[in-house]
Design brief:
Radius of gyration: 26 Å
Helix content: 25-40%
Distance between the termini: 71 Å
Oligomer: single chain
Length: about 550
């Protein structure tokens, strides 16, 4: 059997690295002056970002490394993943990136970073570091107070207790609690995935890898990936060979994850490698660089490979991150006297798994984030409920599937079109200042929209969570407050800035369900018009005007026709 082209199975069910270059999130977010108007509190304005499926922390690391080029501000990163192994890798990668220089130099740190991030096999010193750091984190996860003292930039308080227990179990496995090569035989698992993916093409796997590289990745802008390094990664899982090939002996347990499989009619949990075997980790740091001399070509061929560019970019990123940390007061661990370290200039909050559609239920998340980032693997979660968490004037960045080699060009175009539809349904519009890109789709949540909605005679208590968003809220006269939900509403139509409108008519059985549906709408739309209301024979007009200046409490006023 041969896996059909366009199936997407090479991407896997778990993401370990991103399929797009690292972004500076400050460059993608609204300017700091906008934040000051939205937040009158004194002090440097904070950038609050919600990231779905960032998987490897590359955007966060680049944002912190480039922070010195921007006005001083704090960062609040809220990260939502679909598996706890990705959360654990975030913690391990950041603990390595923020390691003190007197304990580990930049070169050793960058090499360790590349191996545990993108290699299926590790050198013994790197494997020993992973075991030691995982044992340390396994002890800290159950003790929030100690965790905050050791890592003041980390917050796990939003995770459920069972998720914290599972996270501790992940670190225990990484630390070698299950010893022996049989615990994670990555060589055999990698070959099994490759055989299943290629099928009858397995014997011609070198030709298949050359075709995918030259006819797909090179054509899509990743010309610096060399045939030799891409073929080596496809065969062995080793993307960055920084030492002698014989030095890579131990399995990288951070790439292990669980999955439910069907065995003899029953569902059983199996640990294995379920990640990417088609594209590789070269795209995140290896195809773009600030040093343009690394992108030179000679006789039409790049003089540097993606591995060499990745090594340079990661070393520079860690060097800039260390310099920025010193200038901010590096949030290192507590000293021997037990004195708490300096408050971190950034904080990473990990959110519960599967909470993308329920975040807007909490008032602390509604209309909070200036930037929303969604990876291509979690684009299906983009919805009006998620859009309700974005502040007015905020931006949305969606990763596209440009570097997924399994997808045909027509599938890439269909995916981009679907992302646009989901973003518009969530209340976003195309960013007016964004340059055309095949890698990212950029949108903004503008305030120039008006909505018509039916008045259903609902109880005002249902609107209480949303009243603080408006400077004035007007309803029909007080005489109508005794009316119960009607059996019919006049219309429900949404008029966008383009002038097109859509109308819906029909019975409404429950005003409670209607208000739940409109809840996310009420959070972020600037103007609401309730017109031509027909309710149990009563006709009236009402409107809501969104608060244009912060700090003004919501007001309620009744008017008559």
């Amino acid at each position: 059997m041969t896996t059909a082209a366009g199936s997407g199975t090479g991407f896997g069910s778990v993401s370990w690295w991103g399929l797009s270059p690292a972004l500076d999130l400050q460059a993608e977010s609204p300017p700091a002056e906008w934040d000051r108007r939205a937040d009158p509190e004194p002090g440097p304005p904070e950038l609050e970002v919600l990231l779905l499926g960032s998987v490897d922390g590359r955007h966060l690391l680049r944002t912190l490394a480039r922070a010195s080029l921007w006005p001083r501000r704090g960062f609040q990163f809220y990260v939502l993943e679909n598996n706890l192994e990705a959360v654990a890798r975030h913690m391990l990668i950041f603990s390595l990136a923020l390691e003190e220089l007197d304990k580990m130099g930049i070169q050793e740190r960058s090499e360790t970073f590349l191996e545990l991030w993108g290699n299926a096999l590790l050198r013994p010193p790197v494997a020993a570091y992973v075991r030691a750091q995982a044992a340390r984190l396994a002890q800290l996860v159950p003790e929030p107070d100690r965790l905050e003292r050791q890592f003041p930039w980390l917050r796990l308080c939003a995770l459920k207790f069972r998720e914290r227990d599972a996270l501790e179990a992940v670190f225990r496995f990484w630390s070698g609690a299950e010893r022996g090569p049989a615990a994670f035989p990555v060589r055999r698992l990698w070959d099994a995935r490759l055989r299943h993916y290629l099928g009858s093409r397995y014997d011609a796997r070198h030709g298949v890898s050359d075709w995918d590289l030259r006819m797909k990745l090179h054509d899509r802008g990743a010309q610096v990936i060399h045939t030799r390094e891409f073929r080596r990664w496809r065969d062995t899982g080793v993307a960055f060979e920084l030492r002698d090939p014989g030095a890579y002996l131990e399995p990288n347990r951070t790439l292990a994850s669980g999955r439910l499989l069907s065995h003899r009619g029953e569902r059983v949990a199996a640990r294995g490698y379920w990640g990417d075997i088609a594209t590789g980790p070269f795209v995140a740091f290896g195809i773009e660089t600030d040093d343009q001399s690394l992108l030179r070509t000679s006789n039409g061929q790049p003089v540097k490979t993606a591995g060499e560019i990745t090594r340079h970019n990661v070393a520079e990123l860690l060097r800039e991150l260390a310099a920025w940390g010193r200038s901010q007061g590096d949030p290192g661990p507590a000293d021997a006297s037990g004195k708490a370290p300096t408050a971190a200039p950034f904080t990473i909050h990990f959110l519960p798994l599967g909470s993308a559609q329920t975040l807007h239920h909490k008032s602390c998340h509604r209309g909070r984030f200036q930037l929303l980032y969604v990876s291509c693997g979690m684009a299906h979660l983009l919805s009006p409920e998620l859009g309700a968490c974005v502040a007015r004037g905020g931006n949305l960045v969606v990763e596209l599937a440009r570097y997924m080699v399994d997808l045909r060009p027509e599938q890439l175009r269909a995916f981009s079109a679907q992302v646009g539809e989901l973003a518009r349904a969530a209340g976003f519009a195309e960013h007016p200042g964004a340059h055309p890109s095949e890698t990212f789709a950029r949108f903004s949540l503008d305030g120039c929209r008006a909505f018509r909605i039916p008045f259903l005679g609902f109880s005002l208590q249902l609107l209480e969570p949303y009243l603080d968003c408006f400077s004035e809220v007007c309803f029909p006269s007080a005489e109508s407050s005794h009316l119960r939900p009607g059996l019919c509403c006049a219309c429900l139509c949404c008029t966008r800035s383009t002038g097109d409108a859509k109308a819906l008519q029909g019975p409404v059985s429950s005003h409670t369900e209607q208000i739940k549906m409109l809840g996310s709408l009420l959070c972020r739309c600037p103007v609401f018009l309730l017109t031509s209301v027909c309710l149990q024979g009563w006709e009236g007009r009402a409107w809501m005007s969104r608060n244009q200046t912060s700090g003004v409490p919501g007001r309620l006023r009744c008017i008559s026709q």
